[in-house]
Amino acid sequence: MMKRHSSAALPPSTGGEMHEQTTGKADKSYKRPSRCSRLCSFLIIATAFSMLACHCYDYAHGGVARVEHGRASSRRSGGSPFSDPAVPPRRDTGDRKVSADNEARALAVADERRRRELCTGQYIYVQELPSRFNTDMVWDCEDLSPSKDKCKYTANGGFGPRLSGGEGGVLQKTGWYDSDELALDVIFHDRIKRYDCLTNDSSLASAVFVPFYAGLDVARHLWGHNVSTRDAMALEMVDLVTARPEWRAMGGRDHFFVAGRTTWDFRRQVDVDAEWGNKLFRLPAVRNMTAIVVEASPWDRNDAAIPYPTAFHPATDEATFFWQDRVRGLERQWLFSFAGARAEDSKSIASNLFEQCRASAACSLMECTKGPSNQCDSPASVMKLFQSSTFCLQPRGDRYTRRLAFDAVLAGCIPVFFHPGTAYVQYTWHLPKNHTDYSVYISEEDVRRNVSVEERLRQIPPDAVERMRGAIVGLIPAVTYSDTSTKLESTVNDAFDLALWGVIRKVAKMKKRIAEGRTEDEKPEMYSWKYPLLGEGQKAEDPHEWDPLFAF
Questions:
Q1: Rounded to the nearest 10 degrees, what angle do helices 214-221 and 184-194 cross at?
Q2: How many CB atoms lie within 10 A of CB 229?
């Protein structure tokens, strides 16, 4: 289990301040009584010698008070050695300062040893890049979109503005933000900065992170710019990174970066201004790297999809557990719900589902519109809808994936998918391999043949519904990007942790292939969507029910 923060990340202890030792003074004016016998004199001398020996031992070993791990302890049952006002404090000494320094060094060595044990196989090296490749874009946030103010969404480490007051009881009072679904560049970089297993030695690193905000860069130039402008910063980044010694170790195969948009914004086929996006992912050097996106290509292996950011970013494990308990116990008045709009694309089934939901007394419909009044952009409105529903319909639209699928998981609503590209072949680092454990699948062809979604859902036994809901609630941490700014240690692996583990495992497999003399992946890229689904003994060339859906 990955630990986010160790004691190395915590503020230094102030317990190193030494307690002063207690001491006593021999009375030089003391004279023996004249009537004391020799035996009495001998006893007095012996007693004085014994006291002197104890005094010297106590002085050499730090006195009655001991300092252990920055906290004072006492041999007295009362705790502090200064609780007795009759015992005056001793003066600090050079010997005690040396002892404290030695103890501090020992603690630092022990802490570093513990950190190495925790971080072995998990070290990340962060490549140096000028700020124009990342944080400068945040400062110039007014340029990120020609039609929407993106500046507020870059606040709070990319989470956006906080939502307060619980939004009418639908949300918790803390941990909720008005997050933009395309803010992953900023969110991931902010988390990397807080990652406990960073290293300045690239030879120790399991992977190299390149802090290039590829998603924000392309967003600035998607409309009204020629291909040269769209490609400029991507080409400059490649020139800088490939010139570094860290690149030469594996030819960039251990490098990764975040491009928090869909893969199609970075795969322009030809250098024609009328074509969409830039060609970042098609550059030869970048094809060796791993690009983290919110929607990956089913036919390429140099990108990997991780969940869209939702509005929930808990700061503690307890906040996550509380939310899970809450959505697990909700009474759900609707059998199913749909948040969407009539599709303009005739091939889309969204319009069909829209009409089915509107015609059903068991379905709650939220129509998504354009503009500031769009309820689908309101975290509270979406959560209210999904929290009241047992099933949530999640068709693809103009792209395979949608953020609303993760909002459904967050609400404990069982998602109903109509194409495997919406989730099953996308988020293989975060979702179970067996999709029937947590979701319902109805093919698009069935919907086009006017199969009733309501009838299909009513056929699912109640015990199966409870099992799927339990699985969905259990997935909430895996699709959540937690707020680690409080530096509280966590035992829950969230979406960031699972993404990092996915990258580390991928790089480890590459290193193994290189060690075996196989520098290139021998698997055809056209089957990239299928590889995570294969069972023991299965081959990518074997027939699969989804082959027609991903015909290359």
A1: 160
A2: 13
Per-residue tokens: 439: 């979701």
The pair of structure tokens assigned to 454 is: 């309501």
Distance CA 80, CA 91 (A): 17
- Looking at residue 175, what DSSP letter applies? S
Residue among 169, 182, 239, 167 nearest 213 (CA): 182
- List CB contacts of 452: < 8 A, sequence separation 6 or more: 356
Q: Which run of H or E residues covers position 43? A: helix 38-60
CA distances from 170 to 331, 380, 424 (A): 13, 6, 29
Radius of gyration of the chain (CA): 32
Which residues fall within 8 angstroms of residue 46, CB to CB, at 6 or more apart?
Answer: none
- 175, 314 in Cβ contact below 8 A? yes
Q: How far apart are CA 92 and CA 94, in angstroms?
A: 7
- Compute φ and ψ for 16, nearest 5 degrees: -80, -5
Alpha-carbon distances of 253 from 130, 189, 281, 389, rounded to whole Å: 22, 20, 14, 44
pLDDT for 93 equals 53
Tell me the CA distances in angstroms from 285 to 152, 256, 269, one per residue in order: 34, 12, 16
Distance between CA atoms of 366 and 373, rounded to whole angstroms?
12
For residues 495 and 489, what is the distance between their CA atoms, to the nearest angstrom? 16
Instruction: Give the residues across from 389 on adjacent strands.
Output: 334
The token pair that represents 406 in the structure block: 């993760």
At residue 490, the pLDDT reads 75
**What is the mean pLDDT of each successive set of 10 residues along the chain, which is 552 residues long?**
40 36 38 41 52 48 38 36 40 62 74 77 96 94 82 91 78 92 96 95 96 96 94 97 96 96 97 96 97 97 96 94 95 96 80 95 93 86 96 93 97 98 97 96 96 97 97 98 80 94 95 80 85 90 94 80
The verdict on pTM exceeding 0.70 is yes
The C-alpha atoms of residue 134 and residue 217 are separated, in whole angstroms, by: 9
Torsion of CA 399, 260, 378, 224, to 10 degrees: -70
Residue 303 has what pLDDT?
96
For residue 519, give the amino acid letter. T
388: amino acid identity, one letter: S
DSSP string, 241-271: HHTSHHHHHHTTTTEEEE--SBGGGG---SS
